[in-house]
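Thread: Newbie trying to understand structure tokens

Hi all, I'm a second-year student working on a class project, and my supervisor (Dr. K.) asked me to get a predicted structure for one chain before our next meeting. I've only ever worked with sequences, so writing a 3D structure as a token string is new to me. If someone could post the tokens and maybe explain what I'm looking at, I'd be very grateful. Here's the chain:
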Amino acid sequence: MKLLLHTCCAPCSIYPVKFLRQLDIDVMGFFYRHNIHPFQECLKREDTLKEYSQSINLKVIYQQEYKIEDFIQSVVFRESDRCRICYHDRLLQTAIIAKKGDFEAFSTTLLYSRFQNHERIRETGEAIATKYGIKFFYHDFREGWKSGIEASKRLNLYRQQYCGCIYSEKERYFKKC
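---
Reply by user tm_fold:
Sure, no problem. This is what the structure looks like when written as tokens:
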């Protein structure tokens, strides 16, 4: 199977790529960056993914634009539902590229994180798959959470402390008195 894997960052890709390759799945990554703030954070994640993907011979498609305004406009006044909107945007773009690239399926490294809503990601991926006629590959990659973290530390990869969006950054760093 040829699969396009939405890849949010290098550390979160370690276990999913390893798992998929063990299933003899031909994996290619896709780095979506419109939601990552600030731009310097986006570049750190992208540079780390480039270095890591080269070391494991993983081809990755990198978005060229940086449309942070589009992301913010899509969630403004719906901040409490921002993750659903963000999941949809990332999975939709992955599915569109996968369909155009003759991939048989698409998936996401978001399914590796203990901090993401797996059921919502699954529902979103399956709905997009149905609409676009391409399979959404679901697997709960959280089983490799600990080994992925250990590997990322051993490899000295840049490890971010928030999902990437401006709202998550605020939640991470702004502490109410």
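A couple of things are worth pointing out once you decode it. The chain has a mean pLDDT of 95. The chain has seven helices and five strands. Feel free to ask follow-ups in this thread.
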